[in-house]
Design brief:
Two copies of one chain form a homodimer. Chain A is mainly α. Chain A is built from ten helices and no strands. The first copy, chain A, has one domain: Tetracycline Repressor, domain 2, CATH 1.10.357. Helices cover 64% and strands 0% of the residues of chain A. Chain A binds a DNA duplex through helix 4.
Chain lengths: 208, 208
Amino acid sequence: MNDKFYALPREKQKRIINAGFSVFAKNTYKKSPVNEIALEAGISKSLLFFYFRNKKELYLFLLRTVEEITNKALKESGAYEGEDIFDIMYKGLMTKARLMKAYPDMSRFSLKAYYEKDPDLSREIRKIVSPYTRIETYKALPPMDPKKFKDGIDLNMMYRDIFLASEGFFWKIEQGDNFNEDEFVSEYKKLIDFWKSVYLKEEGWKCT
Amino acid sequence: MNDKFYALPREKQKRIINAGFSVFAKNTYKKSPVNEIALEAGISKSLLFFYFRNKKELYLFLLRTVEEITNKALKESGAYEGEDIFDIMYKGLMTKARLMKAYPDMSRFSLKAYYEKDPDLSREIRKIVSPYTRIETYKALPPMDPKKFKDGIDLNMMYRDIFLASEGFFWKIEQGDNFNEDEFVSEYKKLIDFWKSVYLKEEGWKCT
DNA sequence: AATAGTATTAACCGGGTCGGTCAACAGGCT
DNA sequence: AGCCTGTTGACCGACCCGGTTAATACTATT
């Protein structure tokens, strides 16, 4: 790929990247017209081929970009160091919301990439996509202090419930094209507070 | 469309229908090759064009078929007449499982149809797809007796939690192509039982 | 204003795909 | 053989798509 791309104003880079996410998220790799990406980015197809040698290079660049963006966001949010499970979830939510605002089609793109079947690509895709991204997260639940939770609660099932509801929540948002960040966050906060009230012994602090 | 189609053995009809669901679920209407459908159904493209005048007719037929199938299934399951919410959910689950086994790609197809943008189609799609199918179901929660639930539970939030988790559950299953019906049902039963244990006052009967 | 250098595009090419048609074929029945 | 019904391979014209290239617009420098 042409290094000139990095010299572009960030604004324009993002427009191109998002256009790529959008088109590749909608169609298979093979059925995603480069022209459509260029159009959506507001540039000509020729220029796109000036920055990226060919379609494949563009695609793989986008895939690497996903990794880069998410890793950076996760590190910045401090989502890894968690004391209590609800805190972790809240942090995760905020980063996800920020990401969805900046790159609306990124997650759908990466999901589609994960299931891409094109023989030219699948090998290289699996080389780039970090395996843990799509792992069944609920199996790696963080250590929790059982004393904090109400008696008789099956913690594994609790985590499963929370995890599934979160997935459903994000999924519904990714479906509709109307994405109001504030509403999104406050709705999810309500959910977290509800879970706290149901599962936690002491109805203590609410998340800020 | 040609009435001869209905004279076909049910087996063959289903193969064609499912092939249509599968291909149209993967791609946009415009980018769904009729040939691929024929191939997947094990017949020739020519024959497909013998039964259906053109691509559009085939598509709309499939859409009407979705309505027909789901309506029939819902009526048969008695999912409408519900005493308690968990019972309703359980019935709904079983019908959904049955449907997913018989028509694996149907729900993804109908979802995609809902968001189809093709100018030739969107008008006629909206004419066929019954509006209530995609309504936010959790707003139409059935009348519940508050006494049965533990004190202090926010019933609306409870229903929201359950609804979202179910969506997430179905969504995860629709993603992966491995669909084990038994495992599916038993997993969901576990969830329902968990919810009962958490939300209900008397830990009574488990669902059969 | 002329030049030079860079960013950007319109026009084009060859190969492939797709919706749709049609003449032909296969197989059972009389 | 002749007929009917179900089925297909081969074909067509239009369009699409990845990629190239020659030309244009833009900007800065002299």
